[in-house]
Structures are given as C-alpha cells and as structure tokens.
Design a protein that fits this description.
Number of domains: 2
Oligomer: single chain
Helix content: 40-55%
CATH topology of the largest domain: Phosphatase 2c, domain 1
CATH superfamily of the largest domain: PPM-type phosphatase domain
Number of strands: 11
Largest sheet: 6 strands, antiparallel
Shape: elongated
CATH class of the largest domain: Alpha Beta
Order of helices and strands: HHHHEEEEHHHEEEEEEHHHE
CATH architecture of the largest domain: 4-Layer Sandwich
Radius of gyration: 30 Å
Strand content: 15-25%
Distance between the termini: 55 Å
Length: 353
C-alpha cells in the first residue's frame, strides 16, 4: 500500500507522455495525495503531494498544446487537493492517538471493575471472560464478580439495561453492592435484596430517567462452605445457568419466576435460593444474553446447551475458550451484543488423577 501513491503519479506521468492530449493523468495526480493520507505520516503525505504537484507542473510545461491558463488551473487544483490530503492525514493521526488513548483508559477501567478472577478460589476452579460486540468498546453493562466469603464462594453474572455511561455506572454500583452484601448476608436471597436496594438508592440520588426506568438481570450462585457438592441459585430475570456433567447439559430453571433487579415495585423477589446438586466433575456456566441471543446469518439463536453437549473440558478455562470459538463461528465474528461469561467447577477429589 505504501508505494501505491507514487505508482499512481508515475502512471499519470506515463499517460501524459504517451496519450496526451486524448487522455491525461490529471485525476491520478489529484488522487495520489488523498490515497497517501490514511497510510503515510503527515510529512510523508506532504512529500507525495509535492511530488504530485511537481509532476503535473512538469507535464503541463512539456505539453505543447496546453495553455498557460490551463496549466495554472490544473496545477493549482492538484496543490489544493494535496494540501487537503495533508490536513486529512493530520486529523487522522490525531484521531488515532486519541482512540489509542481512549482504548488504553477503557481497558484499564475494565481490569479495575471486572478483574480477572483467581483461577482457584475456596476449593473451586474459576474462569471468566468479557467480550464486547465492538472491537473498540472494551466495557459496557455486562458484569461478573466472584468472591470467597464466610458463607462460601459466591458469584454473580448480570446485564444492566441500556448502554453508555448510565449502564456503566449501574454496573459499578452492582459490583460494589455485591461484594459488600456477599460478605455480610448469610442468605443468597438477601444478597439479591441488597442489590435491589442499592439500585433504588442510586436512582433516587441520580434523579435520572435512565436510572428510574432501568433494571438489571442477574444470576447469583453460591457454593456453600463445607458443602462442595451443593449449588444455590437466585435468578432475577436472567438467562438460566447451565450445568455440564459427563457430556450432558441441563439448564437450571428457577422454581419461582422473578423480575429483574430494580423492579421491586412490580413484585417481590424469591424469598430463598434454589438448591441443586453439584457433584464432583460438574461445571457451572453463567452467561449474559449476548451469548444465548447471538444470531447466525439466518437469524438462528446460538444454543449453548446443544453446542456443549457430548463434550468434556478439563477445566473452566478450556470450557470458556471453546465456547467463544463456537459463538464466533456461529455469528461469523459479528456478535451484536456484549457478553459476560463465568464458569466454575469443584477441584478434583484429593488423590484423584
């Protein structure tokens, strides 16, 4: 790509020498600096522009049929386009630097708010992923968190309604409230109630319509201390968690339907968590609807239970890596929504191979 503008000028010179006056390279003389602008530095673009202006001026001097007025008009036009290309190149360089800076800041914010969890926590193996639908959108309203507490290892995966800074602020509120409540509340349903209260408190302080009309779907999980083969789930309007064991998959549907967090005025949440067996070797997958609502070119949804059936993964990291490959293939690398993923499994029994 780098030699192309120079080649264009040389082709324009050749056309002028061989075919003028029936065909000239005027358009190529003007186009060369514009082609250089996105790929060359500002100085490089200026040099291409000078080369192009010099070449067109020389061709007009050598063209016996041209007039002085025509020479001046064509050379001036090429010079104006070359100057415009320099300005465009300069703006592109500045925008690129600003985008790079914004990307770095957003990535740092993501790592601060959604840090990579430890791979082992309280006798369990844990993995998490966050994938933005847009390459430059490093953080959004999808969230995850995991914490070892006096009551066991507790996890949350959630999805804040909306986008933009209000969604990001609500996500930060949710994660902060979860970390505090997970340490203090003995019951998982009480943790969810604390999150509900935190969202309402923030809405009152913000007096924002986005907050007033906002809500967050969330799935909370608990692996109780001293009961490693037990799993507790509170689902607040979120896609159901998925269990994987021995090549079989099963959604954990809530025993009682509940509204998302932030909508308590329309109904109460569940009073207690659902409890299901979590045997050795079983893996739990929590995810946001960016996964389950990912579509292919025919509009068909991605089905994680079917994609993961009849397969075995040594650990949560391998599970999430394989899942991301599958959904990328399903969408053709054109996912329309962000997704947060978290997987956990009990570590092997002592002495197991």
């Amino acid at each position: 790509m780098y030699p192309l503008p120079i080649v264009m000028v040389l082709i324009a010179v050749s056309l002028d020498l061989v075919t003028a006056p029936t065909l000239t390279g005027s358009a190529l003389f003007c186009a060369a600096p514009l082609v250089a602008a996105p790929f060359f530095t500002t100085i490089g673009t200026a040099l291409v522009g000078m080369f192009s202006v010099g070449a067109v001026a020389l061709m007009r001097v050598l063209d016996e049929m041209s007039t002085g007025e025509m020479d001046l008009a064509e050379t001036s036009s090429t010079a104006v386009v070359a100057l415009l290309a320099v300005v465009i190149s300069r703006l592109l360089r500045r925008r690129g630097a600003a985008a790079s800076s914004a990307w770095t800041i957003a990535e740092a914010a993501q790592l601060a708010v959604l840090p990579v969890p430890p791979s082992r926590l309280g006798g369990f193996q844990v993995a998490a992923r966050y994938r933005a639908a847009q390459v430059d959108a490093r953080i959004g309203g999808d969230l995850y968190a995991v914490q070892e507490t006096p009551y066991g290892v507790r996890l949350i995966v959630g999805d804040v309604r909306g986008a933009g800074m209000d969604a990001v602020e609500a996500m930060v509120v949710m994660i902060g409230a979860f970390r505090e409540a997970a340490e203090q509340e003995a019951d998982l349903a009480a943790v969810a109630a604390r999150l509900e209260h935190a969202l309402h408190r923030e809405a009152q302080q913000k007096h924002s319509r986005e907050y007033d009309e906002g809500f967050t779907t969330a799935a909370l999980a608990e692996l109780p201390t001293g009961r490693p083969e037990t799993l507790r789930i509170v689902n607040r309007g979120h896609p159901p968690p998925l269990l994987l064991a021995d090549g079989r998959t099963r959604f954990i549907d809530p025993s009682e339907a509940a509204l998302p967090l932030g909508m308590s005025e329309l109904g109460d949440g569940p009073e207690r968590a659902d409890e299901v067996p979590f045997p050795w070797g079983t893996q739990l997958l929590l995810y946001t609807d960016g996964l389950s609502e990912a579509r292919d070119s025919d509009g068909e949804f991605f089905e994680p239970d079917k994609a993961l059936a009849e397969r075995a993964f040594d650990d949560p990291e391998m599970l999430l890596d394989a899942l991301l490959v599958d959904v990328q293939a399903h969408t053709g690398d054109a996912a329309a929504d962000d997704m947060a993923l978290m997987a956990v499994q009990v570590q092997r029994r002592p002495g197991a191979h």
